[in-house]
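Quick question: what would this complex look like in 3D?
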Amino acid sequence: MKVHKIIFLAIILFFTGNSSVNALNKVKNTKAKQVLTVMEKVADWQLASWKQNGTTWPKWDWTNAAGYIGLEKLGLISKNPAYLETLLQFSKDLDWNTGPNRFYADDYTVGYTFTKMYQKHKDPKMIAKFRLLADSIVAQPHTESLEWKNDINHREWAWCDALFMGPPALSLLGKATGEMKYMDITDKLWWKTYDYLYDKEEYLYFRDGSNFTKSEKNGKKVFWSRGNGWVMAGLALTIDNMPKNYPTRAKYFTLFKEMAAKIASIQQPDGSWHTSLLNPAAFAVIETSGTGFYTYALLWGINNGTLDKNTYGPVVEKSWATLVSAIQPDGMLGYVQPIGWQPAPATAKSTAIFGVGAFLLAGSEMHKYVSK
Amino acid sequence: MKVHKIIFLAIILFFTGNSSVNALNKVKNTKAKQVLTVMEKVADWQLASWKQNGTTWPKWDWTNAAGYIGLEKLGLISKNPAYLETLLQFSKDLDWNTGPNRFYADDYTVGYTFTKMYQKHKDPKMIAKFRLLADSIVAQPHTESLEWKNDINHREWAWCDALFMGPPALSLLGKATGEMKYMDITDKLWWKTYDYLYDKEEYLYFRDGSNFTKSEKNGKKVFWSRGNGWVMAGLALTIDNMPKNYPTRAKYFTLFKEMAAKIASIQQPDGSWHTSLLNPAAFAVIETSGTGFYTYALLWGINNGTLDKNTYGPVVEKSWATLVSAIQPDGMLGYVQPIGWQPAPATAKSTAIFGVGAFLLAGSEMHKYVSK
Amino acid sequence: MKVHKIIFLAIILFFTGNSSVNALNKVKNTKAKQVLTVMEKVADWQLASWKQNGTTWPKWDWTNAAGYIGLEKLGLISKNPAYLETLLQFSKDLDWNTGPNRFYADDYTVGYTFTKMYQKHKDPKMIAKFRLLADSIVAQPHTESLEWKNDINHREWAWCDALFMGPPALSLLGKATGEMKYMDITDKLWWKTYDYLYDKEEYLYFRDGSNFTKSEKNGKKVFWSRGNGWVMAGLALTIDNMPKNYPTRAKYFTLFKEMAAKIASIQQPDGSWHTSLLNPAAFAVIETSGTGFYTYALLWGINNGTLDKNTYGPVVEKSWATLVSAIQPDGMLGYVQPIGWQPAPATAKSTAIFGVGAFLLAGSEMHKYVSK
């Protein structure tokens, strides 16, 4: 029987061609399948964990909402319907409501997923509440300073994580509804935060204004890996939602290339970025959430021609290998720095859904990269 | 058959009298019915929207709680039981709990509705939790400055909206239970806020202490329409709950008349008040939430003899017409400035339950006004 | 029949011995039963109130979580399974989630009860989420000043109540899992708060940094009774979870004895501690939450040999009698100062679950005390 099978396969291979092009395609398919398999493994662990223990944080919370963004990307390339079904079910559980703090970007990140569901299922109810909220945001003058006090983060994008939490969701709503005002408010607020938090010497974002005067033990400024990962991933997601002829579009690419060059230059020998970007020795261990976001953003830049493949390809191939090495045997993604707002350690056992989201974002672009 | 009907009606009309008094009564009845009809139209849109989409904000939230106050007034004059039934059902859904931030007036506005339900149904369970909270409030020394920092709004009435959110609920609890301490704490805190936020030159309230030094582009101070609307409506509702012989009662009327004169003097030619009271050109469009509250408060003053009908009658007749003109064909009240804390624009499509509440409050007094 | 019973009892007594030792044992048993009976009376009122009205505050909230700690102690000595069953049911209702503000000690006090349930039922799911949170806490650098601004209480133990809310829960998790890192973070943060809030002249804790410069009308510093009660009870609970050979263990006992001596010296003639410790005349009425915590802590110290029974025995016997006198005929514990953060009055009718918790803690140690 075994011999029969081999003969059968040989015949199939003979008839399907044996040119070098086909051989290359097979290699690509195999690589793409490997990427998809590892993405599904990580995502399946997450879904199983949710099934067994419920979500660790509320379903509307940024922690989960950041994860949903990666899960949706996986849902588009996987044959398993569970990923998109879970997102639809969670959205229904929330009755399409964002979180309680209306103007706090962390609480409306989930609007991204509602809008993706709306694009797929076309039911206006899915974005009705998020639109009302977005209208409220549009209606605010946004004239406050971003100084880190008086709960400014509950009203403005005054910390760098916000650039992942807010812009992709608002700009996607603009794309889905054709209402330019949502893209315009995204644009206005994006550059307000840029003016305040972007360090034009280091090409990195401060986490928030309380860090302007802090320094690491080695004398360097404090730049947080996941924080800048939020920015770069948020940047890529936002550009994807932006009209091709949007007036300030070029500025986003300039910023993206500036940060990409800097980030690539400070990758660690272990393939990851440590939680303190300019003092990697502070916590000398790999970390997967920041690394996942950088891997996603750099691959996105290569895949769309913004970044040079020869220069950046080796960076992301190395960082992807590091990410895959952090997956525990049962599929749990380890080495995610726990919730925080500054450099701090990660361990093999520390996981979190937003780290899974970063990994799946990276995987979604690696899947394209190896298929090219 | 048609001829029979006309003859029948003629006979009825003949026997029910044809004096000028009766004719006037008929006009009054017609006008009152028109007011009621338009109130029901707006409220029915809101109930239908809730049925279809759920509430946009949590049921305990000030947004809805401000709306409930208007719905309850409508419930008292409409034959449709749905308004009061909805309030009872929502209260049950909340298990008679106020919102999560205990001393934040926004989160206990809903106590007003619980107390109204208690007055109707006499079940002590309905106010048991609100009483406990009110006892906690009474027990606080309230000695902090109202300076706009350190989340003071979570502990004191440090912004002018609070004068709608807190005093009507606490004073109504006092009326319903006969416990004078709830009126006394209302009184103490009302005048603390007055001392801090009331501008004795302009006869208007600053929204909060962060506005003392701000100015509009035309050089005027920043006074927000809905903010002062909250105050005047809160003032009327509070006086309604106050014992006739309450020691400081006259002070409330003095304040009311002072503000009423100022507000009437700055009505816009379009019949509304724009969101920046002293710089109406900043957002040169009608706005229905502030206008609703002013229309309510001024009508309340006319109806109870505090304000002169000849002086204030034309103001409210004009503003009422403007409010009615903002109702969209399907019953949605438009031109409500979205959630905010300062002057900002409104559009035909911007609605919100608290704007509906303001409209229904205005309608409830207009209904009396035209019946007189 | 009655005569038969007496004869029967006499025979029993005869055979069970009539030595003075036995007589003493009978007195002890009677006293212990009296303590248990009064504890159950108070707890049963609370359970009945929950059954009838639901919990006044969310189930995850510190108010309830502080109460659960006392209920668990009662559950260990009572034959009525309802106390521990209620805690298990509430924990299930919460799906073993702590409250929404992750690093706010008030919101993870309930982790104590989850861990107690885990120790009993051995299901890792019960502490899975609390462990994740605790890992996040461990991962934070905790380098901020405890100055009372910028919501520091949402990130650090910057107010004295936190020493009850956080340390017992985290250290118990350490004990239950054998992971020393949870005890170590407890230890590190305990002494950070000590350095900031402990007054080394008065041997008392300031409530928070905003009180450093305040004074009572009699010129004394402001020290809040319940606030220092939280500290002393938190101290006792934390030491109970600490390994016997823990390096800094002796420091905790030194602090405990220092505070115990001070507290005993300022007990009021009525057996209680008034809400302003150094200006008892400010609110000259008994208060049961602070008094409950002091009674618990002092009895704990006597029972484990830290405090001298001759010196402290009369203090706690008097304060226990005062606590019992505050129980209303229906079992409601009165004279609990409502939720607050500074000295304020209490009344016969003011109750709260955290006051019940303090009483049950006191009772649990009084039960041991009278059994010795």
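Answer marked as accepted. Chain B touches chain A at residues 52-54, 56, 58, 148-149, 151, 337-340, 342, 344-346, 350, 352 (CB under 8 Å).
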